[in-house]
Amino acid sequence: MKHKKTFHSIELEKNGRKFVIEGPVSKETFASCEFDSGLVAFRPPEQQHKALIKVAELPESRIIIAREENKIVGYAILLYPDELERWSEVNIDNLLELGAIEVSANYRGFKLAKNLLKVSMMDDAVEDYIIITTEYYWHWDLRGTGLSIWEYRDVMAKVMESGGLEWYATDDPEICSHPANCLMARIGKRVSPEAIHEFNRVRFKHKYML
């Protein structure tokens, strides 16, 4: 399918700090910005910045950034699921995964994550997609936030709900391995019944679960 992308931007001011949340941004824009030192959830900041520049080259990818002046302090990425995940088995080309959403530890408390999701869903083109996220407790920064698993899950769910994602049941073994893990999704208004059926087929591989 043709991946249409319409740029959107909002400004956020809190506690005397001004932020711009915008996207989808181009590879060139992303590469030209600094990358905050607190973005360490996946790999060292410099390496993550380089990795995401490559992701920005993918035709389906959508990268939304939160920046303070020219410094990226948070981002959200939508792209096709990794080929090793069951979600890549769907026979449709309009399923995207929220591959990552991260806000620098230096910038927590500014509601940047919610606004990243909000801007991610502003483009009318998302109504053509099924957008999913898989949440696993072992990826959560429990130590850094001081939250329990269930407190963190509640915060995470509220962030995802701000982007219109809802909880969906599945028999995926990794998700089922702990009750805090979950699958959340947003099904666009223009997604066909056939695509929804295919998504449901992959959600439940064991017929007795249907």
Automatic annotation (TrEMBL):
InterPro entries assigned: AcuA, Acyl_CoA_acyltransferase, GNAT_dom
Superkingdom of origin: Bacteria
Domain spans labelled N-acetyltransferase: 45-118
Name by which UniProt lists this protein: GNAT family N-acetyltransferase
Species name: Evansella alkalicola
Higher taxonomy: Bacteria, Bacillati, Bacillota, Bacilli, Bacillales
